[in-house]
């Protein structure tokens, strides 16, 4: 089966990472899964939440926030602040991002610091949560490397890479990394969150007005494992490239660099 965007069933969408997208953030990256684009930033601040001090919890803390910008979807998405509360979907996704990142960050190494992960969706074409987790890992790696270089941390708290990818049954076939067209009509939809070592962090999945067999789940899991392995290799390459680029002089044409990035993506 050839998919609507020309991919084969086992293929990821074009994946790209543009590091240092935010000058003020400790670490940042624009993560793209095809037409899905998410700005992921990591900001490290001194201090920890009050509840940690109250309970005598040692080490630091990491938390995440997620939002979709108004123009990220075809019909304008109202900001949560205009509704007076965070919608249920955004709350669920940012909790997922936080759990995924805390699973691979040694909080004891942070000291009395808090890591704020912010994932803001510029363009949504399915898989915004998987792109957010995958990009947040790169942003954290860049932030921690920066603090190590500045001798504020004795080592990076990031113990391993974590990434996420979707897989689903669409018209009876198992597909990897669903775009919006596939996701909205999938009979079965899963999100796999795993480390570079093949360890599971979380599996989210359900039949969408349908059931699925053990064999179908096995095929989706196999695709998910393959996709995670590929994503972690791409994360590692992006982190290494960003480290090398950090020694180069800054570009005088940041907007031009961003335009070139989108042309290549």
Topology:
Layout: E1 15-19, E2 27-33, E3 36-46, H1 50-55, E4 61-68, H2 80-83, H3 88-102, H4 107-110, E5 113-123, H5 128-149, E6 162-170, E7 173-176, H6 180-185, E8 188-195, E9 200-207, H7 214-246, H8 254-264
Parallel strand pairs: 4-5
Antiparallel strand pairs: 1-2, 2-3, 3-5, 6-7, 6-8, 8-9
Helix pairs in contact: 3-5, 5-7
User: How much beta, percentage-wise?
Assistant: 25-35%
> Structural class, from helix and strand content?
alpha+beta
The CATH top-level class label: Alpha Beta
Our Rg estimate from Cα atoms comes to 19 Å
| Annotation, overall tally of beta strands | 9
Tell me the CATH architecture: 2-Layer Sandwich
Write down the overall mean pLDDT. Answer: 91
The strands making up the biggest β-sheet line up spatially as 1-2-3-5-4
Poorly predicted sequence stretches spanning 5 or more consecutive residues: 248-252
CATH topology: Ribosomal Protein S5, domain 2
Multimeric state of these chains?
A: single chain
How many domain units?
A: 1
**Helix content range of the residues, please?**
25-40%
Number of helices: 8
């Amino acid at each position: 089966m050839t998919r609507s965007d020309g991919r084969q069933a086992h293929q990821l969408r074009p994946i790209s990472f543009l590091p240092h997208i935010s000058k003020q953030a400790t670490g940042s990256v624009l993560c793209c899964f095809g037409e899905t684009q998410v700005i992921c930033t990591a900001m490290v601040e001194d201090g920890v939440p009050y509840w940690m001090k109250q309970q005598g919890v040692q080490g630091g803390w990491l938390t995440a926030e997620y939002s979709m910008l108004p123009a990220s979807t075809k019909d304008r998405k109202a900001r949560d602040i205009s509704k007076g509360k965070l919608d249920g979907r955004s709350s669920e996704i940012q909790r997922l991002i936080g759990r995924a990142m805390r699973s691979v960050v040694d909080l004891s190494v942070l000291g009395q610091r808090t890591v704020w992960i912010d994932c803001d969706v510029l363009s949504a074409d399915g898989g915004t949560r998987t792109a957010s987790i995958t990009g947040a890992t790169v942003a954290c790696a860049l932030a921690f490397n920066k603090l190590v270089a500045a001798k504020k941390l004795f080592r990076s708290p990031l113990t391993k890479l974590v990434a996420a990818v979707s897989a689903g049954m669409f018209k009876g076939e198992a597909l990897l990394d669903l775009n919006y067209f596939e996701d909205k009509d999938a009979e079965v939809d899963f999100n796999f969150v795993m480390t570079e070592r093949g360890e599971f962090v979380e599996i989210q999945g359900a039949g969408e007005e349908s059931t699925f067999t053990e064999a179908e789940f096995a095929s989706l899991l196999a695709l998910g494992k393959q996709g995670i392995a590929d994503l972690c290799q791409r994360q590692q390459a992006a982190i290494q490239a960003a480290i090398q680029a950090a020694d180069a002089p800054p570009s005088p044409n940041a907007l031009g660099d961003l335009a070139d990035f989108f042309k290549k993506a």
